[in-house]
Amino acid sequence: MNTELFKHIYFRLPILVRLFLTILLVMLFFGTVIHFIEPKQFPTIFDGIWWAVVTGATVGYGDYVPLTQLGRIIGIVLILTGGGLLTFYITQFAAATVQHESDLSRGKVAYKGNHHIIIVGWNERSRILMNRILKHDPKKEIVLIDQTVSQMSYRDFPIHFIHGDPTDDYFLQKANIKEAERVVITADDHKSEKQADNQSILTVVAVRGNHDKVPIIVEVMTYNQIDNAKRAGASTILRPNDFMSALLYQEVFKAHSKPFETIIHFLDAQQFHHYEVPEEWVGYPFHEIINPLQKNGRLLLGIQRDGEWIFNPQRELLLVKGDILITSIPWER
Questions:
Q1: Within a domain: residue 111?
Q2: Within this chain, do residues 226 and 167 fall inside the same structural domain, yes or no?
Q3: Among 74, 83, 87, 236, whose CB has the most other CB atoms within 10 angstroms?
């Protein structure tokens, strides 16, 4: 029974581990045998193991050499068996390294880290987002889940790539969704807007089913899918079509003054920051905290409350615990 259990465990180990254990046993065996055959030439078992490793690796330092005929026969057998095993191990190790690199670029390797950001969908928006995240925090780990690209080299894009369907629990678990810090879901450019929204909402459902507390930021293209995204569990819903339509409208009817050209450049370079309202400001009206922040060069744009963004709120709006202040530059209290 114990033998069968050992075989079951042994043959379930990775091939490199099995090879290493086999080589270890072979070297231990030959080292022990040569010690007992020639105890004067090999005073300790460790000396015998050292000789076995050096001989099996065909290094041949010559510091320990068998003198008897039987000892030399043992040496011949060791060279024929141990040397072959070591060569095979090195070959397999190199092949496994190359295979791992290939699997990594093809999105087949599971992510084992934590506190990472998961981005769903590879497109221009997610590429720019990735670059800005890494520029802000070069050590931040990013995991990309996408099924439209078949390969992504880590040397070109310093992210962990998972090739697969983001609505499938299997691929979300490969991205270690339970340990993720937040999830960003971008609309699929390869589908119609309605199909892209359906895919995004299904992804929200799958993510929320695997992690009930992770913040989910989702890009929704059509207005009638906003409520569905909320029901699915999205924390923040972005509507890029509304924003771009407003800019196009201003450009069409106010092109002579181009008031939005400066804003576009501002938004392109600006980074907004979010901070939970301090305890001492809870209960204060919105307008009373604008001046203290402006004195330090920080522009208060609005707040986020219960998942909703409120820009330029009413002056008398009272701040409550859990409100998120939105400022234009980092706020160091």
A1: no
A2: yes
A3: 74
Residue 112 counted as domain residue: no
Q: Considering 188, 211, 238, which residue would you say is the last residue of a domain?
A: 238
Rounded-to-integer distance, Cα 125 and Cα 119, Å: 10
Tokens standing for residue 329: 């530059």
CA distance 104 to 117: 18
User: Domain containing 173: what range?
Assistant: 117-238
Number of domains the chain contains: 3
60-64, 138-142, 279-283: least confidently modelled range: 60-64
Q: Is residue 173 part of a domain?
A: yes
Residue 311 lies in a domain: yes
- CATH number where 81 lies: 1.10.287.70
Cα separation, 212 vs 179, in Å, equals 12
110: its two tokens: 């599971």
> Tens of pLDDT along 133-161?
988 888 899 999 999 888 887 667 788 99
Instruction: Answer yes or no: do 285 and 226 share one domain.
Output: no
Give residue for tokens 């999830």: 183
> Of residues 157 and 250, which shows the higher confidence score?
157
pTM of the model: 0.60
User: Phi and psi of 282, rounded to 5°?
Assistant: -65, 130
Verify that 100 and 51 share a domain, yes or no.
yes
Strands 182-185 and 117-120: parallel
In terms of DSSP H, where are the helices of the chain? 2-11, 15-37, 45-56, 69-105, 124-136, 169-174, 193-210, 226-232, 240-253, 259-269, 290-295
Classify the phi-psi angles of 258: left when phi > 0, otherwise alpha if psi is within -120 to 50, otherwise beta. left
Q: What is the DSSP letter of 318?
A: B
- Two tokens, residue 318: 């009272």
Q: Which CA distances in Å does 253 have to 93, 241, 246, 259, 261?
A: 66, 18, 11, 11, 13
Please tell me the distance from the alpha carbon of residue 135 to that of residue 323, in angstroms, as a whole number.
Answer: 27
At 217, give phi and psi (nearest 5°).
Answer: -105, 120
Question: Which of 186, 211, 238 is the last residue in one of the domains?
Answer: 238
